[in-house]
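Q: I'm a student working through a structural biology exercise. My instructor gave each of us a protein and asked us to get a predicted structure, then write a short paragraph describing it. Mine is Cation transporter. I'm not confident about reading structure output yet, so if you can add a plain explanation after the tokens, that would really help. Here is the sequence I was given:
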Amino acid sequence: MTTHRPPAELHDHPHDHDHGHEHEHGHEHPTGFKGWLHEVFVPHSHDAADSIDDALEASGQGIRAVKISLVVLGLTAVAQLAIVAISGSVALLADTIHNFSDALTAVPLWIAFLLGRRVANDRYTHGYGRAEDLAGLFIVAMIALSAVVAGVESVRRLAEPQPLDNLGWVLAAGIIGFAGNEAVAIYRIRVGRRIGSAALVADGVHARTDGFTSLAVVLGVIGVWAGFPLADPIVGLLITAAILVLLWGTARDVGRRLLDGVDPDLTRQARHALEHLDGTSQASDVRLRWSGHRLAVQARLHLAPGTTVAAADQEAAAAEHAIRHALPAVGTVDLTMTADAPATAGQERT
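A: Happy to help. First, here is the predicted structure for Cation transporter. I'll explain a few features afterward.
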């Protein structure tokens, strides 16, 4: 039995085909109110089920999403800063500074998208796609920090109640903060899913946690107006719990990427596409992994005995086309072609 690997140009050939098909989900999500809660608290990346196929276009959309969200968050913080100037609230000033600093956590992701566009070299032979996953890990750490800060502050205010001043201004700042952060969260998560970026989805979740913090301020003010001054720290503890739920889902998605985990449905789709080629009797060692928002695919194809090298090359081209047609966001495709010689034959064939 001889292993035949197609020429290098077949491994990373772009195959300029028009992929106008839809990639189907192999799993279902809850619907109704339960589905809405699932969407808010566990907004996973769907493993790029709806992602676009061109790598540069995907990176460009990611960079554009980071730029736009930075502008929106900047305007949100500036609006809060104006309220601080009018009200003179020191607490609001601290929250505004916090929002400014959180907006800057998108910068590492911006850098990661730029690095991901660089070509592979002798040192980084697989390219720089992993920079995006490292940025996702940094964002997870920031979400964890937000949960710790929110929890500690809520417990402190519960133990040492402090009166809230300028309630009207505090309410206005909280509403602005929640609206701006939630708008950015929805946008980042949507684009992250479209381009297959778990890190961008995680950054959207980070914006959502900041929005939840601002929402806690709004609910706390309403509680104080209703004659329940402890509403502020109690709501803060509830928001901390919500952030922890978001943290779990985000850490799971980013962790799976770092451990080369993929949605099993993608593996099954790849195997199905390869095993239904005309000249292929079986596909084995089908392996997928993410590098940033691109899928790398490896597989061994077992061809019919006596298959010629030319026929194997044609089969490799057909197999790569089938992979790119069946899966979203495919980067490199590495195929090993094997032709099994008959048991009675005493010679090797390719």
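A: Here are two points you could use in your paragraph. The chain has a mean pLDDT of 76. The chain is about 60% helix and 10% strand. It's a good idea to check both against the output above yourself.
Q: Great, thank you!
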